Each structure stands twice: as C-alpha cells, then as structure tokens.
Amino acid sequence: MSTTAAQTPGTTAPAGATTAGPAAPTPGSTRLAPVAPGAARLEGGWWAARQRANRERAIPEGRQHLEEWGNLDNLRIAAGTREGVVRGPVFMDSDVYKWLEAAAWEHGREPSAQLLQDIREVTAVVAAAQAEDGYLDSVVQERGSAVEPGPDGDAGSRERYSHLPWSHEHYCAGHLMQAAVAVSRATGERGLLDVAVRLADHLVETFGDGPGQIRDVDGHPVVEMGLAELFRETGDRRYLDLAGWFVEARGQGLVAAHGHGPTYFSDRVRVREATTVEGHAVRAVYLAAGAADVAAETGDAELLEALRTQFAHMLATKTYLTGGLGSRWDGEAFGDPYELPSDRAYAETCAAIGGVQWAWRMLLATGDALYADALERMLYNGFAAGVSLSGDQYFYVNALQVRGGAHPDHERSVAAGRQTWFGCACCPPNVMRTLSSLDAYLATTDDEGLQLHQYAPGRVEADVPGGRLSLVVETAYPWHGSVVVRVEQAPESPVALSLRVPGWAEGAVLRRGASDEATEESVPAGAYAVARGTFTPGDVVELVLPVAPRLTRPHARVDDARGCLALERGPLVYAVEEHDLPEGVALDDVVLDPTGALEDAGTDEALDGAVRVRARGRVRGPESGASTWLPADAPAPGRDDELELVAVPYATWANRGPGPVRVWVPTA
Ligand code: FUB
Ligand code: ZN
Fold this sequence. Notes:
seven-stranded antiparallel sheet, 22 strands, binds beta-L-arabinofuranose
C-alpha cells in the first residue's frame, strides 16, 4: 500500500493518520494505512474518560505550567520581547511544542475556540523567537550555551551545534516539527508549520556530507520522526532524506568524537546492524521509531528487518510486564537482558510513549498483530499509570514495586506519588499529546478492507476498496470481553473486516449475524480474526475475548521476579496495594496462593469503576530475626494466615494516595 495514498503515522501518534496531506513522490510502502482525520473516534470507556480529563484539566493547566516554569518566557526572552534570564533544562522549548501538539489534536477531535486561541497565542510566541536563518532554540540563542553536565562529564559549549550530544537542539526541532504538523492538520492554519519548515530548511542546509556541512547527530533522537512527518505534510523529499541521513549517521563514532561513551546515545552500533535496544530508553525508542518511518517511506527492507529484530529482542528480554521500558535509573537506560528489577524500575512514562510510537510504525509497516499487542500492553499499563485518573498528576518513573518505608528521595520517586509537574517536565506534555491523539490508533485500512486494532466504544468510517465502510463499536472493554461491531454503511463489494485477537486471548470467539442465526467460530490468539464478505447496514460482527483474571509467571532468567506471579485481566496488569490489605498487614509480608480461585471482586468507584480482582493469599511475617540474612534452616516467620488479596489495575495504583504496591507477588 503506498504511503502516499493515506499517510503513514507520524507525529507522536498516528498523527500522520489525521490528514491526507499532499501526495509525495516516494517509493515507500506500508502494509497498513492509517485512517483519515477524525475517521476513528473514541466515544466512551476507559480512554474517553482519560481524554476528557486531559482536555478539561491537563491541557489548560499545562499552559499555566509553561508560564510558571519559564518555558514560554524563555522563548519571549529569545524573541527580545521580555527581559530576563532563561530558566530550566536545555530542552524547555520541547515542552511547549508537545503541549501545542496536544492542544492541536484535541482541537481536531472536537473544535474549541479556547484551544484555537491558545494555539494561536503560543504559536506567536514561538514564531517570534525564531532567528533570521531559521534557527530556533531559546536556550542556546539566549544563554549561548546549550550544555548541561551529562554522565560522561561535559566540557561545555558556547555555540550552536557545538555540543550536540547534550544540547537537544535537534530534539527541540523534532518536537516543533511534530507539533507543527499537528497544528496544520487539526486547524488548517500554517503559522507553526511555516516556522517548522524554516527550521527544517536550515537543518537541511547545515547538516550532511556536503561541503561545509556539519556531520553530527543530536544526542537525543526525535528529529528523525519530525522530519519524516514534515515530509509527509509538505511533500518535500529533502526532509525525508535528512531523516535518513541522521539515522545512518548513528553508530559512526560521532558522539564519541565529543568524548562521550556512545551506548547511552544509541550511537555504538549502526541502526541497521543493531540487534537490540540499549542506552537511554527514550532516546533508543525514539530513534527506532524514526528509523521505522524512514524504512517505511523509502521501502528499505533491510532497515525494517533490523528494527523487527530489535523490537523482538526488546520485547523478549527488556520489557516489563507493564510494557515499561528502561530498567536503570543510572542513565535512564535499558539494562542487560532480563535485568528487570521491580522496585528500581525506571520505566519512564516517555519511554512507554516512545514504545507506542515505535510499535505503531512497525504495525503499519508489517501488519503484524504482535505490534498492536505490544502497543496495547504499553498503553494500558506503562503509559496509563503515568497519569492520574484526574488527568493532571504524573509519574515520571513507573516502578512495579514500592516497599514499606520507601522514602521519596527524588522528585521522580514513585514513593512520593504522582506530581503536578517536574523541573524536567518531559513526561506531562508527552502524556497530553498521546491522549489527545489516541483515536487514530484504533483502526487502519489495506487493499482488502479495515482492521480494528484497539477496542473502545466509538465509531470508524473509512474508505475501503469498493467504497465507504462505517462501523459502530459497542464494548465495555477492557472490563468486558465482548466487542460488537455494527455495520452502518458498506460497499456493495466484499471487504475484509479484521479484528485483532490479543496474544493473551486464548479461546476467543468470532460471531457473525443476528442472534438467532449467528455463526460462531474459534479464532486464534495473537492474530487477526477476519470477517470477510459483502456487508449490509445492520450486520453485526462480535468478537468475544476471554478477559477472566489469569496468573502470569516471569521468564526464569528474571531474577528479580523469580518465585513470583502476577495477576492480569484482559490487557490489564494488576497490582496489589497495601491500601487493600487488612489493617496492620504489611504488603512486604504477603504471598499469593496460586491454588486459590481468581475472580472478579466488583468495581471500585474511587478508581473510575475499575474491576478489582480477588485472589487467595497468605500473610507470612514479619521475620523475627534482627538480620536480613538467616541460617538456611532458621524457622519460617511465625505468622502464616490466610488472607484475601484484592488487586487493582496497575494503571490506577496510587490514585488513593501513594503506598506500598507490587505487581509481582511472591508465591506461597
Ligand atoms: O532529555 C530529554 C528528556 O529528559 C528525556 O527523554 C528524558 O528521559 C529526560 O531525561
Ligand atoms: Zn519523560
């Protein structure tokens, strides 16, 4: 399927999915194509509630945070419209761009005069700061130094592009491009796009192998995705070429030339030769997502194959059950294979977002259900936990365990609970733009019909071979497993309607037709169930997914979780919080009895109606010894009482205040 027919995903999310844009000459191809803007709509349930909170609270409050923390003032200072000294991390501008992107997608979902006014005002602030030659980075323009000390130490710099490993100049540019495409697609206004195009033109002139050009890469990828998206929006092939150049330039010693170790920056190995992800997790997955864009748009099968290998290795050895990515606080980095500590997990919210972006691009490129599965796991767990149900409190780090007595020694410590903002605020506006662009992850089309990848109440209308297919989706997923798809309009010729059967859904069933004459068939997990034929208005297809609670064990090499089990239900990973234990029982002394029944335990209205899960447990302890090590034959703790364990979705933990929690529970 040509990506020119319906643009591939872009920006953060399926951004590319939201408009047709000008057709660009490209040999690229993806297996699946995103649906047109507004064609897929979330209208209720789990995600719609979060989108509402995002729209009503997070985005308006976000603009205030950008004022309070100085992000907008930095740009005003660079523009010369305000006196003062720029504040904050070197990438403060990127938070403005992420916020703009969020506001734009939100306006695209449901037009709002207030959002449009905000977008225009903030765009004006950004545009005023741009230098004559298109360069834009308020901190570098004003402070003359974009450098912050990094793990390898840093010599400092006082000029543009002189210290790209740390300066984030391209990182900010990439986020600007993503925001600009979103604003253009959602509002039809070109103001921010013009700024992004001028900056991109400047980058095209400045970077590359040509005479007088700089051969260097930014330490933090994202500009690759931004340039690819700008190419889709404008049809200007130079942007895609530069994205490809940045991808190819990695692994060629450019970061090392600045005196830094390359691993942290995903610069140790060429992207097309890498077999895993390593180093700083957000950088690694943003780079991979940008490389997937390049592979798809250029039809580079070798690069795509390398990305498949890397994704598979990440999933098999470096991904938390929650879909969280990055197991080290040190360097916010991926660890070694199976190095997945629960309590010290980093699993940054931004890394889950980057994982979603990469998975989406791989899904489009390959049509393989495993990417939609991974995307779902990351979204419902590692990502969703990053934001409170109220929509305006955030986790930066998403550990899978907090112990009794944990002391929050860092603003990112999970023990402190979610925060309204951070000095380094990459995650909050990243959450905002992801929530406001979620609709486009629901569905795609191909030469045979339409695919539903994620399930939520809503509707999808898309052009498929032969005409228009309009569907209404009725479901209470993830709480209930029935997904009813009603056809409202269909072409007169046959089409294929494909519904993803998640990998965990053994025993799923596909029903077709009215209840008295419905046909029913078992459909395999981890693939698409295809209802093929000529549909007429009123036809119904129902997918029934078994969402009963289940136990999951860790891979034998994950030392940290050895001897433990986790509870899952449908796409949701569950967690036990000390809040739900009887008074006086410490979660650290609790074990799970796997022989006990697992059952639903009603809903928790304080958690937005989340279905709770009940399991049998025991409380064993505390140990009476005065030491953390005991003779092997020392008696077990005296207390050993049966206990009812109640678990809640991991995504909802700490919404009743922080406290001890665990996903992996030791077994009796
Ligand atoms: O460097 C920009 C952002 O800040 C990264 O993506 C996050 O991990 C945080 O370090
Ligand atoms: Zn972040």
